[in-house]
Write a structure and sequence with these properties.
The protein is α/β, with parallel strands linked by helices and about 500 residues long. The chain is built from 15 helices and 25 strands. The protein has a 9-stranded mixed β-sheet with strand order 2-1-10-9-11-12-13-14-15, with helices on both faces.
Length: about 500
């Protein structure tokens, strides 16, 4: 199955149903599909060829879905750029992928102009406004035919080169194809949601990441996509009522922000049927309050850009068992999951090993990174996640940490996640992150960065004592740093490197 054929199926079946809500605008399936056809034809008319890389700097908005679908239909490989990244990072992405075209939203004209100046041969085209070259792709599209361009494509044709630093710590482009992206949609439908014609998912996180993978599954089932330009807790809660939202997908940080919003208990979320979360660990106190506030409607997934979206799932029924709240779930129905030791042998239940996955939704590979691709695949075809975990007797998986984040202190292995979990049990701790610092005696020392809850008080000794009650002595932080915030990525993941690197800079 090809992703482009999934788009065509939804358009034929649900032509007159609402597909996209943005502010006061409602687009039907037919309107989205025809806009995608026109945008695809406009791109092809400009000389963009099937297989070309086109960078997108557009954010969430009315034309997000039609533009994505246009690229899929034209056989164009889209390279999404996150506006929160630096010019240097964007420049590197453009150069590495060989993108000659940059489609940008009008508010990002200054950024696009700077990139065009830095990258020789780059052409900046506006979307719903003049671009660096003075042109507006949307205006060009209005003069094109509304018929599908019917570009010949295969399952192996790439459609997405999405940058991530996840498993290796350095930026690289994950490539997904027409086939693997279709498999991602199937994976979501088989494991996370089962939308119908009355379903509406609300998106406030960037559509270029996990949130955007839900668009196609809803499109296939006749559901709708409601889009907010940004995440602002009050606006988000109001949008749930306004669009009668049935499902939301958030990272734990966003859920915590919603729960801290005054009046959250009185917000109208009566239409909400499911809250899906992932991308980073869920603090138990946040989950407890969320269930008290909204009820037992939570589902967790574990995956990564290299294998989206759901490698494992902790579904709503699993959440009724509090002993499973520390788990990231049971393997998805369309994924094989194994945990292995350094020699590639399967570890016994309860033992820690690297999580590996084999599934149709895994990436084709990193773009132009043969050596890294070889390191990320085993000889028998499994994808190495570089995440460490353990499995219980029933098969539920528990994340321990990334291999690269492991701390070796005095010859003992310490996984930051277990120390963070112990710290979060203390009522004064709102957020925390644990990293390794250089130590003349132990080589590496455990250091904790802690954000206290509003109005709460706790000393370094208090928190170290709390960890000592739960964990071995060598896992207790040698130092606790109190900070106002924990650095996070654009999708809400804790950036341990931002805390760790300054500690090692003098070494």
């Amino acid at each position: 199955m090809l992703a482009v054929e999934m788009i065509r199926r939804g358009a034929r079946r649900f032509a007159d149903r609402p597909a996209v809500y943005v502010g006061d605008v409602t687009l039907t399936y037919r309107e989205v599909d025809e806009a995608a056809n026109q945008l695809a034809r406009a791109l092809l008319a400009r000389g963009v060829a099937t297989g070309d890389h086109v960078a997108l700097l557009v954010g969430n908005g009315q034309w997000s879905v039609p533009l994505d679908f246009a690229c899929v239909k034209a056989g164009i490989v889209r390279v999404p750029l996150n506006a929160r990244l630096s010019l240097v990072e964007h420049e590197r992405m453009l150069v590495e992928t060989g993108a000659r075209w940059l489609i940008h939203a009008a508010p990002l004209l200054d950024v696009a102009t700077a990139l065009v100046e830095r990258v020789p041969g780059l052409i900046g085209v506006g979307l719903a406004g003049p671009g660096v070259d003075g042109a507006d792709l949307l205006a060009d599209a209005r003069g094109q035919s509304r018929e599908d361009p019917e570009v010949a494509l295969s399952e192996d044709d790439p459609l997405l080169a999405l940058y991530t630093s996840g498993t290796t710590g350095t930026l690289k482009a994950v490539v997904h194809t027409q086939g693997s992206y279709a498999a991602i949609a199937t994976n979501i439908l088989a494991n996370l949601v089962s939308p119908d014609r009355e379903s509406v998912m609300l998106h406030a996180a960037s559509l270029i990441h996990a949130s955007g993978t839900f668009v196609l599954p809803y499109w296939l089932r006749g559901g709708a996509t409601a889009i907010l330009e940004r995440f602002e807790p009050r606006e988000f809660l109001a949008a749930i009522a306004r669009y009668r939202v049935t499902e939301i997908n958030l990272v734990p940080t966003m859920i915590a922000m919603l729960l801290a919003t005054p009046g959250v208990e009185d917000a109208d979320v009566s239409s909400l049927r499911r809250v899906i979360y992932g991308a980073s660990p869920m603090p138990r106190p946040v989950l407890e309050r969320a269930i008290r506030t909204w009820g037992p409607i939570f589902t967790q997934y574990y995956g990564q850009t290299e294998a989206p979206l759901a490698v494992t799932v902790l579904d709503r029924e699993d959440h009724l068992d509090e002993t499973l709240w520390g788990s990231c779930g049971f393997p998805s129905v369309d994924a094989e999951v194994r945990l292995v030791d350094e020699d590639g042998a399967i570890v016994a239940p309860g033992e820690i090993g690297e999580i590996q996955v084999r599934a149709p939704f895994t990436m084709a590979g990193y773009y132009r990174a043969d050596e890294l691709n070889a390191a990320m695949r085993t000889d028998d075809g499994w994808l190495r996640t570089r995440d460490m975990g353990r499995r219980d007797e029933r098969g539920y998986v528990y994340l321990v940490d990334r291999r690269s984040d492991m701390i070796v202190t005095g010859g003992y292995n310490v996984y930051p996640r277990e120390v963070e979990d112990a710290l979060l049990e203390h009522p004064a701790v709102a957020e925390c992150a644990v990293v390794a610092a250089p130590d003349p005696t132990w080589v590496e020392a455990v250091v904790a960065f802690v954000v206290l809850a509003p109005g709460a008080r706790a000393s370094e000794d208090d928190l170290r004592a709390a960890v000592r009650e739960r964990l071995a002595g060598y896992k207790v932080p040698r130092r606790v740093e109190f900070v106002s915030e924990i650095p996070k990525s654009a999708v809400g993941k804790v950036l341990r490197r931002a805390l760790r690197d300054p500690l090692w800079a003098a070494q």
